[in-house]
Amino acid sequence: MSMFDDVPVDVGVIYEGERIRWADAHMELGGPRIERKFELVRARPMDKVKDGEIKIIGPDIKDMEKKSYPIGILVEVAGKEVEEELEGVIERRIHEYCNYIEGLMHVNQRYDVWLRLSEKSFKKGLNTFTMIGKVLYRLYKNELPIIEKIQITFFTDKAKVDEMYEMAMKVYEARDARARGLRDEDVTEFYGCNLCQSFAPTHSCVITPQRYANCGAISWFDGRAAARVDPKGPIFKISKGECLDPIKGEYSGANESLKKNTMGTITRVQLYTAFGYPHTSCGCFEAAAFYIPEVDGLGIVHRGYKGTAVNGLTFSAIADSTAGGRQVDGFHGISFEYMRSPKFLQADDGWNRIVWMPKDAKERVKDFIPAEVIDKIATEEDVSTVEELAAFLKEKKHPVVERWKAMPVKAPAEEKAEAAKEEEFVMPMPPTAAVPIGGGFKIILKDAKIYAKKIRIVRETD
Predict the structure, then answer these.
(1) Is 0.85 topped by the overall pTM?
(2) For 174-183, b where at least 16 C-beta lie within 10 A, e where not — what string?
């Protein structure tokens, strides 16, 4: 008899990575339309947890219509071997286990949580959080036997979500603060995480003391705890190996781990740079760094930002350029905690290379931005175009302006003027290009975005 016979939809790893489009959704919980949402695990004394209890505070699924709702998920666990340092590890499993449920999509984590339920699964009978709670309860007890008792509460009442959100944010910050201080040089092993591989098969996180997982939910200490309690699980030890480049952050052990865990697709990773061999991303990263060639600087945009970045792109558009387990020069999925690290993009000149970020994101990490540069980083309140950004940086004497002297960069206005004079762009064919017998050319472009007012392709004749 299956442990899920009383659940009206299938449950299994086959549904990991399933995407529920809005057109096919019954409703959604959290996500970009909802400001406050959370998921949190707390370790409790044995006598404070009622094993198997599932509570719903607010509207249940059957009471919901097709729109976005607040969501808070509190999982309270107890056991002789359950310690506070395991909370983040157990918490991240919510993502994995929810995605085992047919027709339930779960992405992101912590205060960025986002779920969608398909109309198809709702009609099959998945119409209460009690059923989702049963799946979580049974998977936790089955896969993490150190958990002896577990109770789960779903919050959908906005006032209660808002109240619990404040508490959750304090817990997250306390966890992150505990992990600060230890350096990458102080340890002999890093940790890897494959929890997101169902969404991005060629992505595997390398977690170090000074580089959190991209999702912001797993520190080096969390990785160590997870590997200890579940040695065959998705979070595992990585032998650091030889340091091949201390500035870019390249280690032989990390390279070997990536090669093994991406089946040879990714063979090198440099942890402290957005160029060359940047760390891959799934889609759960908290923020993304992106290159702005007009000023030779980097911008940052976070998941909660609803406007457009200074380059005219939304977070989702920028995220599409780095997600999916790819290494793309100048696009880099990152966590907020990594922004607080002394090794933050150190090969790219760190905060001296950051030229734009939303005000809200800047506020969250302001205590970790060097005093001499913080007021020189523009926000959406200072500039709205790349042209305005260039003028702002020059006026504020941002450190990146010195790079313009060493490697001349045309001002955006000059580039536009030159572009206006161009009547056509001629694309020469490479010498090795094959020309079919019937004439014409075959052009294959991968991961390319081309913008041109006019393009003319001609064949050169002898």
Answers:
(1) no
(2) ebbeebeeee
